[in-house]
Structures are given as C-alpha cells and as structure tokens.
Structures
1.
Amino acid sequence: MRYVIIRDDDTNALTPVECLDRLYRPFLERQLPVNLATIPDVSVDAKRGDGQPEGFLLPRARRDPPMAAQAPGAAATPASSGSPCANGNGKTMPIGSNRALVDYLLANPGYQILQHGCHHDYLEFDHPARAEVAQRLDKGTRLLREAGFPQPQTFVAPYDKLSRASLLEVAARFRVLSTGWFELRRLPYFWWPRYAMKKFRHAPHWRVGRTLLLSHPGCLLSCQRTYSTMLAGIIHYVNTQQLTVLVTHWWEYFRDGRPDEEFIDFLHETASYLATHPHVKVISFAELANSRLRLN
C-alpha cells in the first residue's frame, strides 16, 4: 500500500471560503482528507524574499485587509475582531476573526488543520533564540484553539526553514513536522546520529523521540510546473515511495484573483486518481501520527 498526504499551505483569515470549496469539494465528497497548513495570525502586508506581496494575499485582500472573507452568497462584513492588530512589523489578522471561514472548516471534518508558522513573516522560524521561537509557537497554537480548532499536532514552517532552536521547540510541542528537507548544520547535535542513519538508508522520513520528521519532494502540485506532465510525475513519485506528502498552495489556483480553470481541473483529476487507485490510500497527518505505520 502507498500512502499520500495532501498538504495545502497558507489558509488564513483572508482566504475566501469559495476558493477552498471550489478546490476541495471533490476531495471531501470522496472522503479524501485535506490538510490545511493554516496561518494563525496572518500578516496582512506579508512580503516574499524579493519584497513582493505574498501570493496568499489576493488583490482584494491587499486593498481591504480588515475585511474578512465570506462564505459564498453571504454579505461582506468586517472581521469580528475589528481592525487588524500589530505584530511588531505590521498588522495581522487572527484566523478566528473570520467566523465564516472557521465555521466552514469546522463543518467539513475532511479538513485537518495544521499550524503554519505564526504570522508568516519571511523566514520567521529561521531564528536563533528559543524564547522568541517558543513565544511564536505558543501564540499560534493559542489562536488556533481560540478559533475552535483542535490542538494542532503538525507544524509547517513558512518556506520550510527552521533554525536549530525552532527544531527543538517544534519537537517539544508537535507530533509531526512537515518540511521540505533537513540540513545537518541546522539540526540539534543529539539528532545527528539518527540523521546519519536516515542518510545511510536514503529515507525521506525519520523520527526523533515522539516526533515524526517528514520531508516532501517539493511542490508537485504547482502552477510553476507543466500541467501536461504533472500527473505523470505525481504518479511516478507515489508509486516509488511508501509515503508521499503532496504540497500545493490554494492561492496558486486563483492568481490575480481569477481562477485558473485548467489547473483546477488538473487538481480534480488528481483527486480522481487518488480515490480510484487500489494501492493508494490518502491519509491525514493525524492518522499517520496515531498509527503504527513504520516508515521506510
């Protein structure tokens, strides 16, 4: 049996409900869990490394950041928290300020909520101070819980970048860390023997204590890839790995505020393949953490 985990990054208080539902209704109807790496307190002026606005801040959100995204057909209303709050670098909106989005996610248990950073400031967890990292982690968890979500078991760092301090604090709080890769120079020193064994075995996934450390092969579901060959690449990877973490970003399907119909159709084609392939099972990070599955 081959296992697949769907990880969609960057859900936040400004994410339109209709975008998520358009993308993942076919997954939910097929009972395929979708893991949403959710930003607890999104920075409304978040920038990429090149200084451009983050893609998850769609044009409407950039123009009117205090307004919460609404469910389809609902009248637009201000976020329940009033105006955004400051995070030291700019303004932020906690996920709980968008009740329409939170209620939608809670009403659809096929969505699994992961903790994705805190504000999604650029490389915010590539930080050397454990106290600062711990504060951000605890704040993010608190805001997710206050919104009504269960205690998050899985952590995803913005840009998959974690310092040694962040790795230690994440491992102390979460059962799963999902990231792109691991670098020896960033690992806590007492992790080095296990990392050496992982490298010797050419294993993409490993464990330290109670925490599963999962890597992924990059964003296999991305608008930066060639659509005509993307599914073949996904199938090849799934068929050669015991566990594949498929990473995508909801906002890539709605670049510039317009739906990319071809890309959306491809995502739904992927759902059809995953649901009908007899040797593939789509699971959540929580299922993996609570299972006895031994990863090669």
2.
Amino acid sequence: MNRLTAEQRRRNRARDDQWQLAENHRRHVTERIVALAGHGQGRLCILGAGNAHDLELPALVEAFGEVHLVDLDGDALERGVARQEKSLPCAADRARIHLHPGVDVTGVWDALAGLSQEATEATLAELVERAARAPCLPLPGPFDVAVSAGLVSQLIDGVVMSVPASSTRFMQLLLSVRSGHLRLLARLTASRGRGLLITDFVSSETAPELATTTDDGVGELAQRLAAAGNFFHGLNPVFLTGLFEQDPVLRPLITRVNDRGHWIWTQRSRRYAVMAIEFERSQSSPGSS
C-alpha cells in the first residue's frame, strides 16, 4: 500500500464516527443524486464513496436498479454499507449495491506516492501528460448517472502532498489531475446520461466565517472567497462550472452544464463549503466511446 492510500485510509478511519455530523451534507448529496434517477432501473456509479457518510443508501437503492460504490479504501466501503444495511428493506436491496474497492481513478496514484523531492523535470512532465488522460477502470460502465462525491479535492491533495509548491510543474500536475478526473467522469456517463461533480472548495481553516454561514449563504460567500483567492488549489468555485465547456476533451462530450447549488459540510474539526455541478452527456455517435 502506498503512502497516499495509507493516508486516505487513516482519514476514513478517523472520520468513521462522524455519521451524525454529516447529516446535512448527506441530505444534499442524496437529494441531488436521486433527482437524476429515471424510473428505478438506471445504473448509478459513485466515485469516492468511502465511508458512505454522504450517501443515504436506502434512498439510492430505491431510485436506481444498481448502485456501484468505488473507492481505494475497501474497508471504508464495507463499514459504510454495514452501517446502513439494517435500513435496507430486504436482502435483494443489498444485492443491488456493488462494491469496487482498490480502484485508482487517476492512473498515476502510485507514481505520485513514489515521487521524491528530487523528482526530475522529465518525470514530472510525464506525470502531467498521464494524469490528463482518463484511465480505463475495471468498472461495468458506462452508467446512467456517474457521480464524483467529494473526491477531486482529495486527488488534488495527493499532488499537494507529493510535489513541492515551488516546483515549476506543481500547478501543471495539479490541474492535469483535475482535468483527468472530469474527463473520467464524463466517460463513465452513458449517452444522454447525467454526471454530477460534488466537491468541497474551502474550509473554515482559511474561511472562519463558515462557522456561522448557513446553506443559503454559501453561494454569496463563494463569490467573495473566489475574488480573494481563498479556495483549495484548482477549485475556484466561480470558474469550476465553466471547465466542462472550456476543456477541449470535455466540450464535445457535454451538451448542458448546470450549477446545482452550495451547502455546508460539518466535520468535527472544521466546516467545508461544498458545491455541485451537473452535466448531461451528449448522444454518442455509432462507434464513439
């Protein structure tokens, strides 16, 4: 197990008792996913499911024919499902939940973890190129609805933990990981299906006003924080929606992008501002992926 994966597992374990604190975040996430369901027979994939603190599994099982939960941390997935298993009406509902542990959604996670402070320019340049590609994952996609649930900020944090900010390739690699993730999300979404990017973009550590901000006030606060440059690397809440239409790979794959609002995610040590962006996948032409 590489050091970045070990750190994610440590964080998941440390947050495992915060189910109740995540209630508001879970309600917002679940409502937005369920709103994209068809008639109960669609297939849903959630990247970054982790402890499933942000997912009401009974509601998702009721809305979708299949629910696929993906995360590097298989133990967290098992704990998350076990926590909600008693709330599932019958064994058949549990059988509709499919776990996909140990999946690297970046294609470069091991390489990132193995970087040293003396990594050469050539090594970093190769990583920048590789990270921008959406990897082929061992998942039974495409899916009617594909969701990235609070994952892109964790992937970006992997870059922050691996490459000095002083490196000339730091921002390039960070933005490449972000682009690759958005492209992956689009590729996992079936023709005419829906994708949903949910991400935190700032915490009360640098924005202490989040301690008293309500859900209704996050959108306005996001504008002010963006103007001040106060947001996680690569996650400017004002510009993030436009990335789907600006990216040359994403542009032909997407027909519509909508802002699906902002809210507060409370954890034990701090509060986070969260946003959701929905897109519609274009109708695939014969022979296209």
3.
Amino acid sequence: MPLTDYGSALVTGASSGIGAATVRALASRGLVVHAAARRRDRLERLATETGCIVHVIDVRDTKLIYQSFGDLTIDVIVNNAGSGRGFETLISANPDEIDETINTNFVGAVHVLRAVCAGMVARQRGHIVNVGSVGGLYPLSSSIYGATKGAIHLLSQNLRIELKGTGVRVTEICPGRVKTEFVNAAFKDPVAREAFVSGFEIMMPDDIADAILYALDTPWHVNVSLIELVCTEQYIGSSAIAPVARP
C-alpha cells in the first residue's frame, strides 16, 4: 500500500545521516515517527524539528529492543542503525570492533524486526526497509563490514519469501558512498578518511531518504525489492574516476 496508507514508522540510527534524513522525510508526509538512536541530545533536537518520538537505545541491547518496541504499532520499519568499526581490514580490527559491527549491523537489526514484525503480520500491513550497502552485493576490501551487509541482503531476500501472503513488503536499500559520520568510525587514518569522501561528488543522506520514500510510496501490489544507488562517478570494482564535464 502507498505511503498515504501508513500511519507510523520506526527509524533506527536516527540521530544523524540517513536515519535523521529519513525521519524528516517521513514526518513531512504526516507519519508518526519513532526515532531510535544512542545520542539523546541529537534525538531531542530532531524531535523539536520534526515532532518525532524519541527512543534512546543501542540496538546491541537486545532486552531493551523488546521492551521499547514490542508493544508499538508500527507500519514502517527502517532498519538503518549501523557501524563501520573495523572497516579497514579484518586483521587490524580489535575484537571489540568486530563485535560492535556485527551486533549493530546485523544482530540488532534482526531483533528489531522480530520485535515489530509480528504486529505487522497480524494486521496484514507493513513495510520493512533494510538499509544495506553495495558492500553487501559486491566484493570489497572490508571483510567484516561487507559480511554484515551481505547478511542483510540475504535476510531481506529470505524475508520476502517468509512473508508471502501477509501483505508485508520488504525493501533493501544499498547505497554506495554517502557523506555521513560513517567515515569517521570506519577509517582511523585521516588520509584514507578524506579519500573516501573526495574525488567526485558524493551522495547526501537526503538522496537515500528520497529512495526510501519512493519504495514506500509505490502501489500496494508493487514491492520494490532492492534499490542500488551509487554516485555518478563511483564505479564498483574499480578505483577509476571518470572526468566530469563542468558547465
């Protein structure tokens, strides 16, 4: 069903970047938006701006997920919380970084879905949006991060099969490079950090939020299964950057 038929949404990782942009976009369309993240100050500023309902939560806290979300009536879930810790290489990552990335990017996302989706199935309506990455679709030199996003990809594909006949739709959004705080956690080396966000015009969080709204706003009989978005001059599997014609 189109976005106009939905009344409520839950967005994780909502305090900045793609999550905050998605909260703003959904609130502008009249939905009651539950915004979940770890940073209370940023969530409260977002609430002042959009009227969203604040949930201060780390999605690695499984018990708190069920306490916070288990009784909510949610039509749209945007599973966006993520971490880039240990992005550079597996052998340079410490054990805490490995646990943080796996538990945030995948395990927490699964528990959020478990807490919310039973209600969607019972009501025969709802839309799951999992924010993955092109790193979950193609090989890249980040074993830990890529594995978590690859898991999100298969989770999304398999959920479509599980939820057949329930009226609940599933969309996976797979962005390439986006200008968010992800890069600060992903790269310890400031030179590598700068290289990740420079060299071509990078996507912004609003670009991804627009794609999410597109998927949500399609007619009820249409399921946008996967959207892959990359910067115009970003090429998967190559570091080459094509010249850009300037007016």
